[in-house]
Amino acid sequence: MRFIKKLPVILLGLIYVIFSVQFFVMIMGTPVFPPMNELATSFMTVWFASGFVFITKTIELVGGLLLLIPRTRALALVMMAPMSIGIFLTEILIVRSGFAPGIPAYLLLILNTIGIYQYRAKYLSIVR
Question: Please, which pLDDT band fits residue 80 given cuts at 50, 70 and 90?
Fold first, then answer.
């Protein structure tokens, strides 16, 4: 039962770690992007050309590793919430690929929300 309770946070951490490491070492080969609309293509071009992708992936890697360490999970969940929201909003507002291709973005947001809810007792002292 204890493992089931921790599963959403561990899964979220693994997702962030695997895909950020994949970016840095290209484990799964060079990424092939599906056909994108003009806005998404422009966004990706700027994201890569500016080097912002390296900052983003570094934050994902550090946050994902912190999610896998029990002592730092509450901090990591709050740290990764803007990242999950950003990925979700990018999928909805820029990529606009529809529901099925956007499932990974929805999954990140849902897992992060579940994790924050599970660790809500640690955040109560901040708002009181």
Answer: very high
Tokens in use for 32?
């092939």
- Going from the C-alpha of 15 to that of each of 8, 46, 68, 113, 121, the distances in angstroms are 11, 24, 11, 15, 25
Q: Judge contact between 69 and 62, C-beta under 8 A.
A: no
Q: Is 72 exposed, middle or buried (0-12, 13-18, 19+ CB in 10 A)?
A: middle
Burial class (CB within 10 angstroms; exposed 0-12, middle 13-18, buried 19+) of 111: buried
Average model confidence (pLDDT) across the chain: 88
Give SS3 for 85: helix
User: Structure tokens of 59?
Assistant: 């934050």
Domain ranges across the chain: 2-28+46-123
| Cα separation, 39 vs 42, whole angstroms | 5
